[in-house]
Task: structure prediction
Amino acid sequence: MATHVYIEDIGQYAGQEVTIKGWLHNRRSSGKIHFLTVRDGTGFIQAVLSKSAVGDELFTTADHLSQETSLVVSGVVRADARAPSGYEIDVKYFEVVGKSHDYPITPKEHGVDYLLDRRHLWIRAERQQVILRVRHEIINAVRDFFNTRGFILADTPIFTPAACEGTTTLFPAQYFDEQTAYLTQSGQLYNEANAMALGRVYCFGPTFRAEKSKTRRHLTEFWMVEPEMAYADLNDVMTLAEGLVVSVVARVLDKRRGELKVLERDTSKLEAVQSPFPRISYDDAVKILKEKGLPFEWGGDFGGPDETVLSAQFDRPVMVHRYPSKVKAFYMKPDPDRPEVALGVDVLAPEGYGEIIGGGERLADLDLLLARIEEHKLPKDAFEWYLDLRRYGSVPHGGFGMGIERVVAWICGLEHVRETIPYPRMLNRLYP
Ligand code: 4AD
Ligand code: MG
Result:
């Protein structure tokens, strides 16, 4: 058999004989010719099979090939302007590797629950593959952003002794005989310690929230990238967040236009994501909501619908800062000029996608932090190590967390985060 090549590289082999190793996506026949759409994970290509080229026996076998049969196909690459990839293969020979009977996901419409029950197969669909490729690009763009700016990747633990983001969304895990561990909600607290050691750091891993809400933005397991900087204030945090978002969007536009096209994404909306992002206070945001007729009172946290309305006012992400301290986490620094608000920021994505980033400046003062831990009824013992950061050379510092799935949903233009990760974990879903 000829050299094995990947479909994404097929353009380099025009006129040559090659071998493709993949699966049958689709087949149609016109009596004397079979058209097989073959996919190999890197793309799709049409393989054209005529009786005269392959002989009677193979031609008859091809009559019965069913969806997702794995096969190896050899033939000559031919440029064809009508083909979506620009090329077709004139088949000389093929071999079945593994049969596939009654593949459960057919080109007809299936309900989303049906598809999620078969997520391990659903990811073979073109649209799902494309989304996962964009996810991959976003993750690489994030890593490159921090790695080229002097940030050190410092991993934070997944088993933790206490809550970071409120005690109502903790997942407990039995930790040997005596202790309960909790799956991490955020690496932030450890990131703060790492920043005091290494200056600028980030962690990037799975995080867990026992969210009982069924929304299009919530998963129980999601991936978060969290940078943290020593000697930084709220403005530094906002500038970093803006730089990251601009850089990630530009990278996807540069490298994944083909994928965005398959998703029918309106890329003009993404082109608009340029610096500077508007920075508005929580107070201003409340004014906007009231002007738009929402029954919102100063002091509450924004819900999904509020964020949708706010983010729809701007053509690029908007940064909302200085939320009421009461609705924010215990570690946020109160504004010295106005202690009832905290020096925190949320970045809301445009087109109604809502919060993609949350962060801010941390409370660096030992006594104030102790008071907050008490107010929030958190177990002080579990936070002794965190308090040490305020005892030994405390400095102004801050950072944020960006949820990868929400960013993927926004950039791909998806209705729900469930399609942004290979195996979504939600209130009612732990299978497959
Ligand atoms: O705003 P959050 O809760 O902030 C933190 O966890 C901070 N400790 C981060 C930090 O400052 N280092 O979460 C940050 C982001 C949100 O903006 C959102 O994008 C995502 O994480 N996120 C979720 N994504 C999917 N499903 C959920 N249940 C999410 N909860 C938060
Ligand atoms: Mg938040």
Q: What stands out?
A: Residues 164-165, 186, 188, 209, 211, 218-219, 222, 224, 226, 355-359, 399-403, 405-406, 417 surround 4AD (ligand 1) (CB under 6 Å).
